[in-house]
Amino acid sequence: MASSREDWLRWMDAMAHAVDLPIAASSREGVAAQLELNRRLAAPLLDFELPADTPVDGGPGS
Amino acid sequence: MTAAAGSAGIARAVRAGETTAVAVVEAALARIREREGTVHAFTSLLADRARERAARLDDRIRAGDDPGPLAGVPFAAKDLFDIEGVVTLAGSRILAGRPPAARSAEAVRRLEAAGAVLLGGLNMEEFAYGFLTDNAHYGRTCNPVDPARTAGGSSGGSGAAVAADMVPLALGSDTNGSIRVPASFCGVVGMKPGFGRVSTAGMVPLAPSQDHVGWIGRSVEDVALAWEVLSGTTRPRQQRAARVAVADDYFAQRLTAEARAAVDRAARALEVRDTVRVPAPDAARGAAYVVTSSEASSLRMSDLRTRADELDPATRDRFLAGALLPADWYIRARRFVTWWRAAFDRLFEQADVLLLPAAPFVAPPFGQERIEIEGVEHPVRPTIGRFTQPISPLGLPIVCVPAAPPGRLPVGVQLVGRPDSEWLVLETAGRLAAALAREPASASA
């Protein structure tokens, strides 16, 4: 994923365009800040080394 | 008789003919009139409907019929539960143009079938997505303990309505802590049963793989009574004492002295000496976050494309950002939950119930954006769910019990049990509440 602020915003705009999701100019900074929060909170999950054969959770009781 | 008597106390008195359902409902309506201007817990008040139902209950009792274990108990429901004849708003303007619900949600119908009387709908975060109940469309719900502070969220109206003695019981929902946080901030008891144990039919979803029906009451006895009714299970006659352990490491870090003191006080009261270490809690919190963001945004995709300007700007930005999360993150999150479920199975070989903080601090004042904990500043909003989010994807039964010393701002602790152990968790919560009530004031100083 992009690292500099401008790269980050360009990535966001490209992704939003790709999924046909308009982001109003007034929302751009707010969404970018939220994306950064998402990335910060998800980082430990993305760094966690899962055993390769771990299946997708099927819900409680699975 | 007011809500302060609790669900169990009211039902006993109504069934025994010591008071009437109509008198109880009128007392609750009077209390709402008295406190609503300050607290703003309700989004709809169904006074005529409630009076009519209460009168029918009284007729049944006079005729020798027993209306059920919640006879005459006033309750209210977070405004994401369908109420027959009322438009379900879920805290959003987006849904305001929908027709009134044709049928009440399953949880509402179960409570009514047991004799409870619905008084209205309760304020919440837009689409249950947040922890503050500072709703851009329908206003903020203030904490009855200190109206300058948030009641928590997203079931903020539920916590506040019970804490203000407007109703003794309130339905809410919990996806990442939306029952547990308001219960902690408002100083009342909250329960989130195991995933799927109470039907979410007729409830506007946030993230379906983590959404739970939950409820808030004044006492453990009251939330246990609601569990009995909503689950259709029976309280065991004898319950062995649970082996309780305190979660350390992550769950003992980044919390204020008040929140830490609550855990210590609860551990002392339950005479807990054992500790357990929960593996990879940061990754678990990330998984809960990614699952919630992805599922919530997917459900609102159509609105984001055509009516984004009708959403609260803060909610809208969260939905938009969630819609851009890579699929790999979501799949990784769901795989992680598989691994984490197995890790918890091993933890439950060491203890039956885990004791955790419910929130990292007491209810913050509205407008406070940062908080200092252990000499480091943290943003308030993303930190509130630090202790409730990680365990949310597992769908375990949890009861939140207030544990701050008397006279202090409320803060709660979570009691977390293995799957299908709701009654054991409730028994432990009851034991904890009783022990805390017995504790001399000097022991808390």
Low-confidence segments of chain A:
none
What is the oligomer described by this structure? Answer: heterodimer
Q: What composes the largest sheet of chain A?
A: none
Tell me the number of helical segments of chain B per DSSP (H or I, 4 or more residues long): 15
Distance between the termini of chain A: 33 Å
Structural class of chain B: alpha+beta
Largest sheet of chain B: 11 strands, mixed
Q: Give the overall average pLDDT of chain B.
A: 96
Q: Give the N-to-C terminal Cα separation of chain B.
A: 34 Å
**Helix proportion of chain B:** 40-55%
> Approximately what portion of the residues of chain A adopt beta-strand conformation?
under 5%
Query: What is the H-and-E element order of chain A?
Result: HH
Task: Tell me the overall shape of chain A.
Answer: elongated
Beta-strand content of chain B: 15-25%
Number of strands of chain A: 0
Radius of gyration of chain B: 21 Å
> Can you tell me the residue ranges of chain B where pLDDT is under 50 for at least 5 consecutive residues?
none
What general form of chain B does the structure show? globular
SSE inventory with pairings:
The complex is a heterodimer of chains A (62) and B (445).
Chain A: H1 5-18, H2 28-47
Chain B: H1 6-15, H2 21-39, E1 42-45, H3 47-62, E2 74-78, H4 106-113, E3 117-122, E4 134-135, E5 139-140, E6 142-143, E7 146-150, H5 156-163, E8 169-174, H6 180-186, E9 189-192, E10 212-217, H7 220-231, E11 244-247, H8 257-269, E12 275-276, H9 281-299, H10 301-306, H11 313-323, H12 327-350, E13 353-357, E14 370-373, E15 376-379, H13 380-383, E16 398-402, E17 412-417, H14 422-438, H15 441-444
Parallel strand pairs in B: 2-3, 2-8, 11-12, 11-13
Antiparallel strand pairs in B: 1-3, 4-5, 6-7, 8-10, 9-10, 9-16, 13-17, 14-15, 16-17
Helix pairs in contact in B: 2-3, 5-6, 7-14, 9-11, 9-12
